[in-house]
Amino acid sequence: RGESVPPEEVVQSSMPLVVTMKNLDSHSGESSLWSSEEEEVQVNHSAKVPYFKTKLDIRPVVDHTAFQQAASQQGPFARLKKFPDLGVYQPQLFISDFWLLEKDYLELNETSQNRTLNLTLSYSAVSLFSWSIQVQMAEQWMQQSEYDLTDTQRDSFMLKRLYLDTNPYFLAFSAAFIILHSVFSMLAFKNDIQFWRQNESMKGLSARSMMVSFVMQ
After folding, report:
1. How far is CA 133 from CA 78, 104, 140, in A?
2. Stretch (H or E) spanning 145
């Protein structure tokens, strides 16, 4: 006997397989730093063309958080489908193209009419924190591209290549170095302010050394 499935138990999600973007170079990130300008392929990045996504990630969000009503309406959590009468919300099924690079997009043109298009699907779970970060970054890139102030498309691919192609230990070391450098710079600036606030005379100070220090900073 067929029985109807309660709507709170049916999880649906979708994403378009075709997207219109600025002209991509599928060999981006593969060129050498020592390659000459003559070897680079000139691509018209201003034109927008349709592309087929050859990869998608199906990632259910693992979450057991009990949200307050106000908190569930903020940021990416507003995407959650809620059932207030039952006091529950549906698990989020995240269909993601976040980590796709230029080589994962196939340009659709006249030669694609009789061509078989292959789509690779990968399945893995994602944490609530990772999902919220990816959703917020994608929304920020989309908003920035609407104002057309910077080349958000190029910058986003560059950032993703940095994370995917760089050794994670080197990334962690770079992040720790930047944080420590920022902390020490703030401490040095704080000490300079305290010194000049408490200093009542220029005795013992060299104007030349002060100028050299100012230029070096």
Report:
1. 14, 22, 11
2. helix 128-147
Q: Are 89 and 72 in contact (CB under 8 A)?
A: yes
- CA proximity to 126, closest of 214, 58, 68: 58
> Which token pair is 4?
């109807």
64-81 pLDDT, tens digit per residue, is 877 777 777 777 888 888
Question: CA 135, CA 125: separation in Å to the nearest integer?
Answer: 15
Beta bridge partners of 163: none
Q: How many helices (H) and strands (E) does the chain have?
A: 4, 9
The pTM of this model reads 0.67
Angle at 25 between CA 27 and CA 153, to 5 degrees: 120
Query: In 10 A of CB 77, how many CB atoms?
Result: 19
